[in-house]
Fold this sequence. Notes:
Mean pLDDT: 97
Helix content: 25-40%
Shape: globular
Distance between the termini: 67 Å
Order of helices and strands: HHEEHEEEHEHEEHEHEHHHHEHHEEH
Strand order of the largest sheet: 1-3-2-6-8-7-12-13-11-9-10
CATH architecture of the largest domain: Alpha-Beta Complex
Largest sheet: 11 strands, mixed
Number of strands: 13
CATH class of the largest domain: Alpha Beta
CATH topology of the largest domain: Amidase signature (AS) enzymes
Low-confidence stretches: none
Structural class: alpha/beta
Amino acid sequence: MTITRxxxxxxxxxxxxxxxxxxxxxxEEYMSLMQGNFDAYDVVDAEPDYTPPVTYPRTxxxxxxxxDNPFGAWARKVEVKGAGEGKLKGKTIALKxxxxxxxxxxxxxxxxxxxxxxxxxxxxxxxMLDEGATIEGKAVCEYFCLSGGSHTSKPGMVHNPRxxxxxxxxxxxxxxxxxxxxxxxxxIGGDQGGSIRMPAxxxxxxxxxxxxxxxxxxxxxxxxxxxxxxxxMTTTVADxxxxxxxxxxxxxxxxxxxxxxxDDYTKALDRGVQGMKIGVLKExxxxxxxxxxxxxxxxxxxxxxxxxxxxxxxxxxxxxLLAAAVWGPIALEGLQWQMMQGNGMGMNWKGAYDVxxxxxxxxxxxxxxxxxxxxxxxxxxxxxxxxxxxxRYYAKAQxxxxxxxxxxxxxxxxxxxxxMPTLPITASKLPEPGxxxxxxxxxAFEMIANTSQFDVTGHPSMSIPCGQVDGLPVGLMLTxxxxxxxxxxxxxxxxxxxxxxxSA
Length: 504
């Protein structure tokens, strides 16, 4: 099989787009010389793609009817049974709909991806099935994961399992709602700006964004490789630690992984916090939209830790506020370069590429008007930074990311954990149909003040429920040094065993 060679006119046009002025004679000469390069393309084209094997049988599943879709949280129902034994035997799991499950449609919350079917399982899918899990389907997520609310997905809004008409958070909206509503035991979420921890906070569940690269991202649709995280969302801390034990570790195909350090996380659950040093981060309470009840609930949680034997002190890291700003150019220019202009994959990294996703997603350009408002504004800002400033602010933000990471690391030399509110607010009302662009975008990003920093720095960060305000859950966020997930689990389990947050 041969690839289509360019015409003379195409060579001239390509040159013009690259700023070259080629004469017809020059273009003909270049075109003749290019043929040997394209012969190599023919060789590659003739080879079958090299993809991981699929080992567990499944059907394509079905889209559930409204009556069978609590909270609007299922994108696709399908049952895939794993091995007969293992750490996850008897556990039911929902996958965020940006996680590849071979043979089952994956839309990533987007109308422009409707009809795409992956040919391979994500690494984490294989690991869960190998440990006996049963995957029950794909959970709705926000439009290409660009919202902290639960109102941008094209299947429809996802409702908070504790209060209909209110946000379940995002972008892992369906995952949080299905766990929080007791429909599944566990779910997989993704986190580039807080998308595991934000819905975990809104829905009153445990959500862990582990150290960048601890959990392989292979087979999950990227947004921006330096901030991409995927991980566990569960009802209990113990289940969260159990699931991370299964997910964590290098797979040899994900460039985000830098010799990750794994642990037996469930062994930390009974460790307690006696003598642990916890810093209550002053800058974590200063968001302009911080609800007083949230600050009170989280500070009460800090006192609980003091009563359990931890050393609890208020500390200040001014760069916490800088880190939130640094996230902007990285996330927006990065997503535009990799997820959109790069057709979901981008280039310049070694690992497992989904060629089918790259081909399918490229068609977004023909349907760009259908993209969500939250994605459009992200693309507009990102493309402006690339076009008018040559990506210098992305580059400078990545340099500053090392500075802010060092600021946190300096504190982690003296403190085991940082403590702060996960979000400044509880779940907000879902926008009404026909809401303005301003309202849709405001509801999508109003809660991000404390979470995005740790996507930039890569530190592990977990949200657990610590109380309620007006009947809606409040999230407590615990953050530690790289690969200190066991310390986080020890503290989270100690709090969970002491406080009945749902009655607080």
